[in-house]
Design goal:
Blueprint: H1 6-17, H2 38-54, H3 58-69, H4 74-85, H5 90-105, H6 109-115, H7 126-130, H8 148-156, H9 160-172, H10 180-191, H11 211-216, H12 225-242, H13 247-256, H14 258-264, H15 271-284
Helix pairs in contact: 2-3, 3-4, 4-5, 5-6, 9-10, 9-12, 10-15, 12-13, 13-14, 13-15
């Protein structure tokens, strides 16, 4: 399989980098660095790509990650792979798995866990071979979240007490830079909007906060709806920051804990958590969190 030769191919591409090919499409990166400055440049490219992801600019993120991946950075290969495997088009997903395989061969543990020893395709992205910016449509990459009017109809159909709790979430969510539609999906899956709910694991209230999480985010009375919602929104905002806006990973961490997501390199293989994530995605309909300012 050609992927097994990719490490050598990637190393060979470094020579092309220093001929200037990979930088031609991105003059904003400045002059070509010498070999001793390679690590800082890679770090800056990855940081720029991460910032672009947060800004929901996947083309710019892919261009930065691909430039760093051409230096042989396993972290950049992993991030590019993660970006590509979320695309709708099959070719993009195959290229994403190829990048994850490269990262895994360079020793990236999260990439290895994501692949789970499954066969990997041999589809290098063109940007890795040519140094040109990735060329794909932005629209297929991310589905829009469920339209606000659909959520409004859902809220109006609720019993009065639950509708008041949903409206509380709608009012407070923007203060935490959280799309209220995602927060509502979480509360719906967690407690069905019941402020008195208690789980077998002692998760409590509307957003089902366990005592440690409640204390962590300053919730003194988890059965007070506003305190509970504020704590749940603060935790959800923290998870979205940690997992780069990924709805699947943030919701999986909300259900199973961020440590479980880290250990498994993605959504943990727990039936409860996988079903939970599917419920969130089915309601919210987007794999990436929509910034409130974009509503």
């Amino acid at each position: 399989m050609r992927v097994r030769c990719v490490q050598g191919a990637a190393a060979g591409l470094v020579a092309a980098l220093f001929a200037g090919h990979a930088w031609a499409a991105d003059p904003g990166l400045g002059d070509l660095p010498d070999w001793t400055e390679e690590a800082p440049v890679i770090s800056r490219l990855i940081e720029d790509g991460h910032a672009a992801q947060i800004a929901r600019d996947p083309l710019r993120a892919a261009a930065r990650f691909c430039a760093a991946a051409r230096f042989g950075s396993a972290e950049a290969q992993y991030r590019l792979g993660r970006l590509f495997v979320e695309r709708k088009d099959l070719e993009g997903r195959l290229q994403g798995r190829t990048m994850l395989a490269m990262a895994a061969q360079f020793g990236h543990e999260k990439a290895r866990l994501l692949l789970r020893d499954e066969p990997s395709p041999d589809r290098l992205p063109d940007c890795l071979l040519t140094g040109q910016a990735p060329a794909f449509e932005v629209d297929p990459l991310v589905e829009p979240a469920v339209p606000a009017e659909v959520v409004e109809r859902y809220m109006l159909a609720l019993p009065r007490d639950k509708r008041l709790h949903a409206q509380l979430i709608q009012r407070l969510a923007p203060r935490f830079d959280v799309d209220y539609r995602l927060a509502l999906a979480i509360a719906r899956a967690e407690s069905n909007l019941d402020p008195g709910a208690v789980s077998p694991k002692n998760a409590q209230g509307l957003m089902q906060l366990i005592p440690d999480t409640a204390a962590r985010f300053g919730v003194r009375n988890p059965f007070d709806p506003e305190q509970n919602v504020r704590g749940g929104l603060a935790y959800l905002r923290w998870l979205l920051n940690r997992f780069n806006g990924s709805v699947a990973l943030a919701s999986a961490a909300y259900n199973a804990g961020e440590g479980a997501v880290d250990r498994h390199g993605g959504v943990p293989p727990f039936a409860e958590t996988r079903e939970y994530v599917q419920r969130i995605l089915h309601f919210y309909r987007s794999p990436v969190h929509a910034r409130p300012g974009a509503l």
